[in-house]
Amino acid sequence: MRVVIAGAGSVGRSIARELLSHEHEVTLIDKNASAMRVSQVPEAEWVLADACELPALEASEMEQADVVVGATGDDKVNLVFSLLGKTEFGVPRTVARVNNPKNEWMFDQSWGVDVAVSTPRIMTAMVEEAVAVGDLVRIFSFRQSRADLLELTLPADSRVAGTRVGRVVWPADVTLATIVRDGRPLVPSPDDTLEAGDELLLVAGADADTDTLQKLLVPKDEG
């Protein structure tokens, strides 16, 4: 997979290193010469240019990218980069970093953003997850499909604790994607049994009834 990243700061470089470790091709673009720390990610291609200018993106061969990532600290740049990637170069997948939560409403299909990642929101979700076992926490939303990634740590007295996955009647448009148990992600099968303390990652569609989902997973004497 070929990925073009706008922003060669600490966030962009970290993403690049992770992608390279999975044997993807990565190009980093940044207009600041001070960000050109090539030695820190030598396997990546580096382009010193403005990621909001078409000639720079053409030089980066963005039309060959499978995914583009707007990872700068400037929301305007991330939006323009995503829009150009989608409309001018036909990139299949665009991911954009949201620095200011007040700007989240703009990071949608109208600006060419498929997935918006808000670090403040994710950090808030992690704080809530740490203090609210048994409560659904929205990690982030997929802007294109309007689906949500939800997390819940299963309490010991949950209605479904000790129940096989295949016997749980999930609400419509809700899918159990992953069970994290003892720090290890598991792909759930119908024969797996849900255990107290399991961290459940669920994908809920735009029309999913999350109230019913919450009632399904709360302690037996509630709801």
UniProtKB/TrEMBL annotation:
Could you confirm whether the keyword NAD appears in this record? yes
RCK N-terminal domain residues: 1-117
Q: Does the keyword Transport apply?
A: yes
Q: Which UniProt keywords apply?
A: Ion transport, NAD, Potassium, Potassium transport, Transport
| The RCK C-terminal domain, residue ranges | 137-219
Which Pfam families does the protein's record reference?
TrkA_C, TrkA_N
The protein's name:
Trk system potassium uptake protein TrkA
In its UniProt entry, the species of origin is given as Promicromonospora iranensis
